[in-house]
């Protein structure tokens, strides 16, 4: 079992948990994830490791309470434990020799983008960050991003923080005066796709982190298959990071919609149960 040492609510739907995970904390690299079960009746849920402390033996995950398991998890408190977790899984992000990088996060995807930006900043790489949210209330990790980025631009759909627009608008503005070796985009599929459209036109290598349906996390079930450069890949063992200019986003959208109606029904029932 993994004990919850810290719990923080970052916005109305998003929670941060620091968990005891000694072995994982000493092995994890940026881009990797865990698979977690809340209890013996729980499903296996993949969650990116947002931070870690090898000395304390802890990992940090950031969770949006939107599905049955994440709603259950959001009700746990400091001192409680989750049944089990396994990791680190997936391939670490390959930054190659990039010296100037722009990291773009969308919504809760910012929690996945941040550890890559933090890693780069501590390895003498010039890092800018862009993050997009629906409104000011939904913003997470603002202080953490500003602490490690040379330029940090936070956009909101409604302009409630003073910057109205999309992350693509912010990236296009930065590209008027800056050049990047690499762009990392993590968030909703339409956002990652739009960022790739901007960077492809300027021939800037772009990494995206994909979130297809995932079950076992070892490449055996095939549920997380994605099409990259015309080939079938498994996000759990070949990714989750891929060259964004080679991803078949249309296929990814279609696969992620397969169980949308069932998920929406179950989520409504679960929300009634946990009120």
Task: Give the helix/strand layout.
Elements: E1 2-11, E2 14-20, H1 22-25, E3 33-37, E4 45-53, E5 58-64, H2 68-74, E6 81-82, E7 84-89, E8 100-106, H3 110-121, E9 126-133, H4 142-148, E10 151-156, H5 167-174, E11 182-186, H6 189-201, E12 205-209, E13 225-228, E14 231-234, H7 235-238, E15 241-243, H8 249-256, H9 260-274
Helix pairs in contact: 5-6
Gist of the model:
This protein has helices at 22-25, 68-74, 110-121, 142-148, 167-174, 189-201, 235-238, 249-256, 260-274; strands spanning 2-11, 14-20, 33-37, 45-53, 58-64, 81-82, 84-89, 100-106, 126-133, 151-156, 182-186, 205-209, 225-228, 231-234, 241-243.
Note down, in words, how this protein is organized.
The chain has nine helices and 15 strands. It has helices at 22-25, 68-74, 110-121, 142-148, 167-174, 189-201, 235-238, 249-256, 260-274, and strands at residues 2-11, 14-20, 33-37, 45-53, 58-64, 81-82, 84-89, 100-106, 126-133, 151-156, 182-186, 205-209, 225-228, 231-234, 241-243. β8, α3 (110-121) and β9 (126-133) form a beta-alpha-beta unit. α5 (167-174) runs parallel beside α6 (189-201).
């Amino acid at each position: 079992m993994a004990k919850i040492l810290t719990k923080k609510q970052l916005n109305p739907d998003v929670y941060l948990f620091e968990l005891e995970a000694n072995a994982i904390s000493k092995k994890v690299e940026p881009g990797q994830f865990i698979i977690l079960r809340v209890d013996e009746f729980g499903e296996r849920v993949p969650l990116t490791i947002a931070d870690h402390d090898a000395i304390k033996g802890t990992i940090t995950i950031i969770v949006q309470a939107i599905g049955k398991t994440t709603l259950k998890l959001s009700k746990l408190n400091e001192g409680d434990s989750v049944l089990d977790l396994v990791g680190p899984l997936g391939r670490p992000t390959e930054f190659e020799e990039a010296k100037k990088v722009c990291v773009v996060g969308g919504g809760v995807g910012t929690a996945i983008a941040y550890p890559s930006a933090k890693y780069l900043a501590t390895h003498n790489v010039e890092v800018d960050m862009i993050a997009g949210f629906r409104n000011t209330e939904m913003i997470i990790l603002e202080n953490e991003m500003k602490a490690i980025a040379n330029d940090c631009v936070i956009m909101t759909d409604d302009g409630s923080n003073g910057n109205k627009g999309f992350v693509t608008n912010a990236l296009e503005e930065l590209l008027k005066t800056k050049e990047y070796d690499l762009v990392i985009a993590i968030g909703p599929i339409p956002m990652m796709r739009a960022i790739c459209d901007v960077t492809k036109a300027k021939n800037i290598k772009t990494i995206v982190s994909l979130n297809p349906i995932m079950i076992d996390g070892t490449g055996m079930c095939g549920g997380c298959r994605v099409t990259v450069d015309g080939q079938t890949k498994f996000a759990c063992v070949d990714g989750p990071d891929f060259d964004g200019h080679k991803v078949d986003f249309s296929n990814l959208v279609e696969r992620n919609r397969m169980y949308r109606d069932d998920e929406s029904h179950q989520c409504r029932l679960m929300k009634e149960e946990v009120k």
